[in-house]
Write a structure and sequence with these properties.
Elements (H helix, E strand, L loop, with lengths): L11 H18 L24 H15 L11 E12 L1 H4 L2 H11 L4 E7 L6 H9 L6 E5 L11 E7 L3 E3 L4 E2 L14 E7 L5 E8 L5 H15 L8 E7 L21 E2 L17 E6 L5 E7 L2 H5 L3 H7 L5 E6 L23 H6 L2 E7 L4 E6 L5 E2 L4 E4 L5 E3 L4 E2 L4 E5 L9 E3 L13 E5 L5 E6 L3
Parallel strand pairs: 1-2, 8-9, 20-21
Antiparallel strand pairs: 1-13, 2-4, 3-4, 5-7, 6-7, 7-8, 9-11, 10-11, 12-13, 14-15, 15-20, 16-19, 17-18, 17-22, 22-23
Helix pairs in contact: 1-2, 4-5
Length: 461
C-alpha cells in the first residue's frame, strides 16, 4: 500500500538552498576514513552498501537534516512498524569503548521502531545509556527501558527495550516476570512491557528473554506461563509478542518437537529454516512468537543480515555480535490506514489521588523476592528522580521504610534488602527484623514524599 503523500513545507526552498551549500562544502572537505552511519532510510533493508567514509558520514548528516527539517510527524506518514530482537553478545564496557562497533550497533537499531536487546553485561550500567546516545547521535529520538540485572550466577545480564518515540510510546509500566523461588523456571526472567503506536490503534505487550542454553529444553516450554501472565498486563490489547534469543535450535533444543507454545494460536514468525547466527553455525536461535493481533501482522518477517547489508567482513560482523537481529512488521491500523488525528501522550496531572497516581508514577515496584524479602524499585521514566522522603510500606503501613537522600537514574533500579552484608550495587539496607514479604498475597506499597501512592506489587506464588 502506498504511503500517504504530504504537502511540501513552505520552508522547502530554503532547505534546498542550505542543502546545496552544505553539499558543496562537503565535496570540498570530504576525507575518507572508515566509519558507519545509517543511509538506509527509505526501506527496511538497503543492500550492497559500500564502506562508509568520513565524506559519506557528512552526506548522511546533511540528508538527515533535509529529511527532518520542516517535516511532519513520522507517525502521520507510516503505515507499519518494525519490531525486532537482537542479542548484542556480552555488551559491556569493552564493546562500548569500540566506536566502530557502537556506530554499527546504532545504525542497525535505527532500522527498528522497537527492538528488544539481550545480553547486556555491565555492572556499571553505563554501556546501555551510551548506546542510546549513539543511536540518537544523528538526530533520531529513541527512548529506552532497561530491566534489572538478572542471573543465578555472578554473571548478570539485563534486557532493554529501545523504541522510536516518533512511532512508539509506552502503554504501561515494565515488569520482570515474577518467577517464584520454588519453581525458578528461568535463569533470566523475561522482561515485559506494553507499547502502542503513536498513530493508528496497534497496542501490544512485548516480552524479551535470553534462555539458558543448557536449560533451553525446560525454559522454552515454560514460556507458555509467561504468555498467560502477559494477558493480564494490559487487558484488551491487540497482541502478545514474545521474542529473544531462545536458543531454540541445534544442540540446545529440538525445533521440530511439539510443545504447547507451538499450538495453533501461537505463531512462530521466524521459521526453522532461518539462520540467526553470524558465525559458522546454521541455527535458528532467535525467535519472535505472536499470540493475537494476527490481523495487524503484515506477513513480513525475517533476519536482518547486517553484514551483507553494510558490507562487513566476517571478523567485523563478529565484533558486533554472534547473532543477527530478527524482525517482524505490523500494520498500525487494522484497515491499513492512518487516522487523520493522531493523539499525543499527555503528561502527569498536577494533582492526583488514589489509583490515578499509581498509573502516572514512573517510579514503580517491579518485584519482590519472598525468600530474601528484597524489594526492587525501578525508575521507568526518562529523567533521573530524587526519591528522598519516599516511603515503602507493607499492608496497613505496620512496617515502613523512609528513603534517605537517593537518586534513581532513568531506567535504573534499586533494591531494598534486609541483608546488612550485601555488597551488590544499587542496594539500600532496611533492617526490619520481621518477616514482611514472604508469602503469596503479601503486598508492598510505595508512596512519594507527599504521601501519594506511586506503585504497589503483590506476591503471587
Amino acid at each position: 500500500m502506498a504511503k500517504k503523500k504530504s504537502k511540501k513545507s513552505p520552508m522547502s526552498k530554503y532547505v534546498v538552498a542550505i542543502a546545496v551549500l552544505l553539499l558543496s562544502l562537503a565535496v570540498l572537505t570530504g576525507i575518507g576514513s572508515k566509519t558507519g552511519l545509517n543511509t538506509a532510510d527509505s526501506g527496511f533493508i538497503d543492500e550492497n552498501i559500500p564502506e562508509i567514509s568520513e565524506f559519506e558520514r557528512y552526506i548522511d548528516i546533511i540528508l538527515s537534516f533535509i529529511r527532518n527539517t520542516g517535516s511532519k510527524n513520522p507517525a502521520e506518514e507510516t503505515e507499519t512498524i518494525t519490531a525486532g530482537s537482537f542479542n548484542i553478545q556480552v555488551f559491556g564496557q569493552s564493546k562500548a569503548s569500540d566506536d566502530e562497533v557502537m556506530t554499527t550497533l546504532a545504525r542497525i537499531i535505527r532500522n527498528f521502531d522497537i527492538i528488544a536487546i539481550q545480553e547486556i553485561r555491565d555492572s556499571s550500567e553505563t554501556a546501555a545509556p551510551l548506546l542510546l546516545e549513539y543511536v540518537n547521535s544523528d538526530g533520531s529520538d529513541y527512548g529506552m527501558f532497561i530491566g534489572e540485572r538478572l542471573g543465578r550466577t555472578s554473571s548478570k545480564e539485563q534486557y532493554a527495550f529501545i523504541y522510536n518515540r516518533n512511532t512508539i510510546r509506552p502503554a504501561g509500566a515494565p515488569v520482570t516476570y515474577p518467577d517464584s523461588t520454588e519453581t525458578d523456571l528461568f535463569h533470566r526472567e523475561p522482561y515485559i512491557m506494553p507499547f502502542e503506536t503513536t498513530g493508528g490503534d496497534f497496542t501490544a505487550t512485548y516480552a524479551v528473554i535470553h534462555t539458558d542454553p543448557d536449560e533451553a529444553d525446560e525454559e522454552i516450554p515454560a514460556l507458555i506461563h509467561v504468555m498467560d501472565y502477559m494477558k493480564g498486563i494490559l487487558p484488551g490489547d491487540d497482541a502478545l509478542i514474545l521474542m529473544g534469543d531462545l536458543n531454540a535450535d541445534c544442540s540446545y533444543f529440538d525445533e521440530d518437537s511439539y510443545i504447547t507454545l507451538k499450538s495453533e494460536k501461537y505463531n512462530w514468525l521466524i521459521g526453522n529454516g532461518e539462520d540467526t547466527t553470524t558465525g559458522n553455525t546454521v541455527c535458528t536461535y532467535d525467535r519472535i512468537i505472536l499470540n493475537g493481533g494476527e490481523d495487524y501482522y503484515t506477513g513480513e518477517s525475517g533476519v536482518f543480515r547486517f553484514d551483507t547489508i553494510y558490507g562487513l567482513t566476517r571478523d567485523e560482523s563478529l565484533k558486533v555480535s554472534d547473532h543477527y537481529p530478527v524482525y517482524a512488521k505490523f500494520k498500525i491500523s487494522r484497515d491499513g490506514t492512518v487516522p487523520a488525528v493522531i493523539s499525543t501522550p499527555s503528561g502527569p496531572s498536577d494533582s492526583c489521588s488514589g489509583d490515578s497516581c499509581i498509573q502516572e508514577s514512573k517510579i514503580i515496584i517491579t518485584g519482590i523476592n519472598p525468600v530474601s524479602e528484597e524489594v526492587t524499585i525501578q525508575n521507568a521514566g526518562d529523567e533521573d528522580k530524587q526519591i528522598s522522603g519516599w516511603r515503602l510500606s507493607d499492608s496497613g503501613s505496620e512496617n515502613s521504610y523512609i528513603f534517605p537522600q537517593y537518586t534513581i537514574r532513568a531506567g535504573a533500579s534499586v533494591t531494598i534488602t534486609p541483608d546488612m552484608n550485601s555488597t551488590e550495587e544499587n542496594i539500600l539496607v532496611w533492617q526490619t527484623g520481621d518477616e514482611i514479604w514472604d508469602d503469596s498475597g503479601d503486598c508492598a506499597f510505595l508512596y512519594d514524599e507527599n504521601g501519594n501512592p506511586a506503585s504497589e506489587f503483590c506476591i503471587s506464588i
